[in-house]
Amino acid sequence: MSSTAPSRDIGSNRFCTCAALVGSWDILPSMPRCGSVVLAGRPNVGKSTLLNALVGEHLAIVSPKPQSTRVTVVGLLTKGDTQYIFTDSPGLLEPEYQLHEAMRAAALRAIDDAEVIAYLHPLTEYPAPPLPIVAGLKRTPRAPIVTVYTKSDLATSRPDTLAVSAKTGAGIESMLATLRDRLPESPFHYNPDDLATQPMRFFAAEFIREAAFELLHEELPYSVACEIDEFREAAEPVYIRAVLYVERDSQKGIVIGEGGRTIKALGAAARAKIETLLGQRVFLDLHVKVLPKWRRDEPSLKRLGYAAS
């Protein structure tokens, strides 16, 4: 298993292992700030797009189709004396089956664990309802809530609102300043050059799933899961063997396509995304298997990493 997480370029080294930094900051005139900020909200409010804009790299799946984020994705941003640990969480939804329940549980855990909550809501749908109502919470979260209106490039600005556009970058610096004021004084938890906390094999699986959302239609992408069987980072090119799981044989045929056209296109799209983040050539060995009713099966969800073991 690859234990490295993506980092910003440092010469030719694109990866480094997360490490706590404590003593090296003792010489600063004031204590730095560091803490976790969860990006919370309903599905399709722009959480993943905003995370990517904040960290300056494509980490989280982005799709016009809602509910593409199934697990939390953590991105890191270090600016001056402040380190932001951003968590992109699944959308707060009403569960229809076990996968939805696992996604909602992950979103609620992220809210409960956060030191600051950035509650995202589209400016086009102003005003935002209270987060406890949207999340179905019995009590107000302990962490401070900052309401951030997204997609400001699609709506007229409003006074006394914190609005951002992940597309243009407008409002992001104001958002960061507001969040910084609410973060605790603390040494940095990660190397300032680190970009994420999860290993590359996690992002490889996510990018394969993102390609499925781009190339497959209607409800089929929601029936697709991805598991990395093998990740040989020392190989040249990097060798990744991955399995796409669907729920029915008929879906398997669609994912493979006539003469293998669809699976080849999906693999090419996913490989390009992985190579961009990894900074190396990749050989992606992609397979399709049937895992019946995996979205409604607790053992399957645990196996795929969607439910807590």
Nutshell version of this structure?
The chain is built from eight helices and ten strands. It is an alpha/beta fold and 309 residues long.
Provide key terms for this protein:
309 residues, 5-stranded mixed β-sheet, single chain, 2 domains, alpha/beta, Rossmann fold, GMP Synthetase, Chain A, domain 3
Gross CATH architecture of the largest domain: 3-Layer(aba) Sandwich
Mean pLDDT score: 92
The CATH class designation of the largest domain is Alpha Beta
Termini Cα gap: 19 Å
Please identify which CATH superfamily of the largest domain we are dealing with: P-loop containing nucleotide triphosphate hydrolases
Helix run count: 8
**C-alpha geometry:** globular
Helix content: 25-40%
Radius of gyration: 20 Å
Strand content: 15-25%
How would you explain this protein's 3D organization?
It is a single chain. The protein has two domains: 5-182, Rossmann fold (3-Layer(aba) Sandwich); 200-303, K homology (KH) domain (GMP Synthetase, Chain A, domain 3), CATH 3.30.300. It is built from eight helices and ten strands. Residues 10-28 have low confidence and may be disordered. It has a five-stranded mixed beta sheet, sandwiched between helices. The protein is an alpha/beta fold and 309 residues long.
